[in-house]
Design goal:
Largest sheet: 4 strands, antiparallel
Number of domains: 1
Strand content: 15-25%
Radius of gyration: 13 Å
Number of helices: 3
Structural class: alpha+beta
CATH topology: Gyrase A, domain 2
Length: 98
């Protein structure tokens, strides 16, 4: 079953729960910065595990110590609750102080 695409007002309300994320071209996006490449890749590995369990896979861009996640639900043609759930989970995967 395809999740329901959120309305603009629902997206605006949900953005308060993920303050470090931005809307970019109709998608949720955040860039995470780490001390080095190894820590960035460890984060990507943790995100991959969570995404695979949820069967909801982000676009991932890696630039040395920076990881950009971009979230949208392709089947729904926009942002759904699954995107906000994964954004919150990704935020929780960041080590303290990173």
């Amino acid at each position: 079953m395809v999740p329901q695409r959120l309305s603009d007002s629902q997206i605006d309300a949900a953005m308060a729960e993920v303050p470090d994320w931005a809307l970019v071209s109709g998608r949720l996006q955040r860039t995470f910065k780490f001390d080095d490449f190894v820590n960035a890749m460890a984060f990507v590995d943790r995100v991959a595990s969570v995404a695979e369990r949820a069967q909801h896979h982000p676009d991932i861009l890696i630039r040395y110590n920076k990881v950009t996640l971009t979230l949208t639900t392709h089947d729904a043609g926009g942002i759904t609750g699954k995107d906000f759930d994964l954004a919150q989970e990704a935020d929780g995967l960041v080590p303290a102080g990173a």
